[in-house]
Every structure is written in C-alpha cells, then in structure tokens.
C-alpha cells in the first residue's frame, strides 16, 4: 500500500491534526491486514486520500466518487480506530497479586525468550480470569496491543497463522492473508518498545502443534526469521507475550505433546478457600455463612479431589442460588464422575444437605 500511495501527499490540514499525525505510523502497520482485505488496495488509497480533507467533506466526496458504502465504512472505522485508543475493561487485578507477580518475574527472566505461560488447573480455578486480567495489565490496558482467542476442535493453522479467503466483490479468486497470530506478531515487531499480549483460552481443545505449525520452534527462539510453507517470512518478536489456559482434568480433549509443552512455563491453578471467601464477601453474603460454605467446599475437595474450583460459587448470593449451583452445576459433574459408585454420590449429597440444614437452623441466608 505504501508503494501505491504517497503518504506525504496528505494535506497540511491532516498533518497538523495531532491526533491523526501521531497515528500515521500506526496506520502503516495496520492498513495491509485491515483495509485491503475488506475493500481492496485501490479503493482504500483513494478513500484515505479523500480523508486528507475535513472529515465531513471527505465522507461526502467518497460517496460522490461512487465508492461503495463498505469502502466508506472501512475508511471511517480506520480513522475512528486511530484517533481514539480503546481501553480494555479487565482492570480488577491488584499489583500485589502473587500470580501477577509470578508472571511478571517469569517474563523478565534473563537469557530466556520463552515469554509463553500456561495457567494449568481444573475448572473453576480462575485460569481465564487471570489470563485476561494479567494480559490487560501487561499491555497497559491498550486494546490495540491485546488479542484474545479460544482454541476448539475445528480451529486450525489456517485460522491462526495464515489462510486463503475469497477476494472482495471486485475481483475473483482467493487471497492469502495473515491471521490472528501473524497479525499480532507483525504489530508487535513494529512497536518493539511496548508489550503485546495474545491470550489463548482452552489451548488443548484444539491441536496446538498443528495450529502453530512452523511457529512451534520459534515461540522460544524469538527474533529469528523463519519461513512458512507458503513462502511467507515471519518473526515472533520478544515483546509478544503468550498466555494460555489448560484444563488437564478433562480427558475428552487433546493432551499436549512434550515438544510443545516444554516451550511454555506452567503456573498451577488450584482451588482456594480464600478466593471463595472473597467471592462470598463481594456477593454480599453475611460473614456467618462463610464458615459452613467454605467448610463444605473443603470437604468437597477431599471427596472429589481437585475437580471443583471456587469460581463455581461466583453466582451464590442467597440460599436459593446456592441450591441452584449445587443441583445444576456441581452435582451433575459428580454424578458423571462417580457414575457407577453410588455410595460416593450419596455421601457427597449428604454433605450438601448438612450444609443447607446448618444454614437454615442458624437463619444465616434466609
């Protein structure tokens, strides 16, 4: 796009607009991936040239030149994107949080380019919450430096690295375009002073080795150029942080092979009664209910080892929501696990019935 469009030809009016002039370098980095996919190079160049005029006049001329509504929309989206930095809403974590401090220490270790971290733990242990919160913290809550995806069985190399997509309506055939990983690698490489973060939720629900492809080797050899099977040259920069989550308990999904596994540092995520107490406090439950509920939670861990995390109780605000959490979220998991061991199921049910009886007798949640 730079070869076809003389950026210096932008009018003096646009150059003097601080919010736009500060964003021109940003525009150079993003335009090829964002605009050309949507409206084609020629239309985008014409659209941006018209945007050198005052905004309202430029919009009118875009229509007068007969460009499609989609062209106008994309040009407008780019201007809005560049002139207002979006902030992430994930802002609940404290700088003193021990897991945040652990992540910060791990990514700052000398002579180790493996800025790849996996939060490993059973369901309900705040893996995704921590990945999103810490990711936002590391990139200073700047949405332009943060991406978040989830792997699944249908997710592949062509969704993550690069793939062919139909060309826009003015041409025929297919174009090879970079996908989310190459996009953020390119953005990070062009902005080496700032940290970029990619959060991958449910890493082992896809086939990570297939999805990463050639990049598997280079996520630990940052800054080295390598070639994709298409001939595309790529680099994974040192200022890109990968944060992922894995549930090792669910055996219906893929195991991570050792070659992939060793390229990530692992942080174990466990159920924590202190986090459960914080949840109950934030939900407005009386302090008198904390002991019985946390006691039941700890007994549950002994009977149903490392399967039920504190986050299962996130919606508990009264005795009715506690019953709903038990009957519709926790009990089905237990019945599935102990399908042919009725005695264990009965024993755990009795624990919950004792909890309800305790709360009712003390009139704690009524």
Observed structural traits:
disordered N terminus; 5-stranded parallel beta sheet; 366 residues; 47% helix; alpha/beta; 9 strands; two-stranded antiparallel sheet
Strand and helix order: HHHHHHHEHEHEEHEHHEEEHEHHHH
Beta content comes to: 5-15%
Q: Please count the helical segments.
A: 17
What radius of gyration results from the CA coordinates? Answer: 26 Å
Q: Total number of β-strand segments?
A: 9
Shape verdict: elongated
In helices, the fraction of residues equals 40-55%
Structural class: alpha/beta
Q: How many angstroms separate the termini?
A: 66 Å
* Main beta-sheet annotation: 5 strands, parallel
Strand order of the largest sheet: 2-5-8-1-9
- What would the average pLDDT be, to the nearest integer? 79
User: What oligomeric state is this?
Assistant: single chain
Low-pLDDT residue spans: 1-44, 46-55
Note the topology.
Elements: H1 12-16, H2 18-21, H3 24-39, H4 41-50, H5 55-64, H6 69-83, H7 98-107, E1 116-120, H8 127-138, E2 146-150, H9 157-160, E3 162-166, E4 174-178, H10 180-189, E5 196-201, H11 208-212, H12 215-218, E6 225-227, E7 233-235, E8 240-246, H13 258-261, E9 265-268, H14 273-282, H15 290-303, H16 319-337, H17 342-361
Parallel strand pairs: 1-8, 1-9, 2-5, 5-8
Antiparallel strand pairs: 3-4, 6-7
3D structure, described in words:
It is a single chain. The chain has 366 residues and is α/β, with parallel strands linked by helices. It is 47% helix and 12% strand. The strands form three sheets. It has a five-stranded parallel beta sheet with strand order 2-5-8-1-9. A two-stranded antiparallel sheet has the order 3-4. Strands 6-7 form a two-stranded antiparallel ribbon. α3 runs antiparallel to α6 (69-83) and α14 runs antiparallel to α15. The longest helix has 20 residues, at 342-361. The termini are far apart. Mean pLDDT is 79; it is low at 1-44 and 46-55.
